Amino acid sequence: MTIEHAIVRTKPKPWGSLDLRPWSLASTSDGPIGELWFERPGLAAPKTALLLKMLFTTEPLSIQVHPDDAFARSIGLANGKTEAWYIVSAILGARVAVGLNHPRSAAELRTAITDGSIADIVDWQPVHPGDVIFIPAGTVHAIGAGIVLVEIQQHSDATFRLFDYGRERQLHIDNAVAVATAGPRGIQMPSKRLSAARTVLTVNSYFALEQTDLAPGSVWMLDAPKETWLLAIEGHAQLGSTRLAPGEAFFLEADHAEIEVGANGLKALLAYPGPKINPAALIKRSATSASRVPHAFPSPLVPSPFETAALK
Questions:
Q1: Mind spelling out the 3-state secondary structure of 238-297?
Q2: How would you write the pLDDT of the chain (312 residues) with one tens digit per residue?
Q3: Paired strand residues for 19
Q4: Peptide bond before 60: cis, by omega within 30 degrees of 0?
Q5: Does the annotation count 161 as an active-site position?
């Protein structure tokens, strides 16, 4: 039985940001930070099946592709990488690439990688806050500049670069050609509203991702029979004795926790292993009574002890 306030590990990236507010107080004095990884506290914590991240882009990321489980294991990796993105914020004109604009042969894909024209044949599309993009393994993809997003993925860092905007990092042409689906993206299933409080954004063999919108002052029971991540996007809440503010996450497994929602409500993302939706993941218990004032929480820019530990 496990309920843990996740710690945050920062990942420097050349395309990252020097200002992570209001999501993090992590120092960027050593250079831009591109990713925040939410992890279980403690060195002895077992590896999780899923990895929850936030990404901050001021430049385009490399055009890349991830292997599926079979290919990953053939080269000695534990598993492949299927992922999904939730767009938190995006500047005007921000875009992502998902798949190619037209089918290509393997030879044509290799040529496009070699001469750099791959950047012109990926399928760029605009993005806006609240958009959800599912990226199955084998999908050629890229994230443009000016975006903050949440990513949920299989716990793997297996990435093959096809193009990197002159950053002189290694490309992985042979592996990329071997695993890429050299054509347009598949059809993405639409989000499904389960209730006023729960919307399934995407579900697949590896994970389910939901958006939860909890009313001010409401009280909920979060049930986590399997590995479960909860990340606050807007508003505040109390899980047991611990505050949950935007940019903070909890990990639960084989346990449950009461969520007491603050005066401004709570928008959060909920992720757990697929392929099935957990119908009992969130059960409304009651609304706070008139004599019980919802918590007034401090600013998310005041670090909690957990945040302070994560920043060291």
A1: EECCEEECCCCEEEEECEEEEEEEEEEEEEEEEEECCCCCCCCCEEEEEECCCCCCCCCC
A2: 789 999 999 999 999 999 999 999 999 999 999 999 999 998 889 999 999 999 999 999 999 999 999 999 999 999 999 999 999 999 999 999 999 999 999 999 999 999 999 999 999 999 999 999 999 999 999 999 999 999 999 999 999 999 999 998 999 999 999 999 999 999 999 999 999 999 999 999 999 999 999 999 999 999 999 999 999 999 999 998 899 999 999 999 999 999 999 999 999 999 999 999 999 999 999 765 433 444 444 433 333 332 333 333
A3: none
A4: no
A5: yes
Q: Which domains does the chain have, with CATH numbers?
A: 47-179 (2.60.120.10), 192-311 (2.60.120.10)
Residue 159 CA to residue 138 CA, distance in Å, equals 10
- Contact between 141 and 196 under an 8 Å Cβ cutoff? The reply is no
Q: How far is residue 118's CA from residue 74's CA, in Å, rounded to a whole number?
A: 26
Given the residues 40, 161, 185, 198, the one annotated as active site: 161
Kindly state the tokens that stand for 96.
């992502």
| Distance (Å, whole) CA 123 – CA 180 | 14
> Can you tell me the distance from the alpha carbon of 214 to that of 219, in angstroms, rounded to the nearest whole number?
9
- Candidates 50, 6, 222, 32; CA nearest to 151 is 50
Residue with tokens 């697929």: 274
Question: Which structure tokens are listed for 196?
Answer: 């006023």
Q: For the chain, report the end-to-end CA distance as a whole number of angstroms.
A: 28
Question: Which two structure tokens, joined as six digits, stand for 91?
Answer: 């500047």
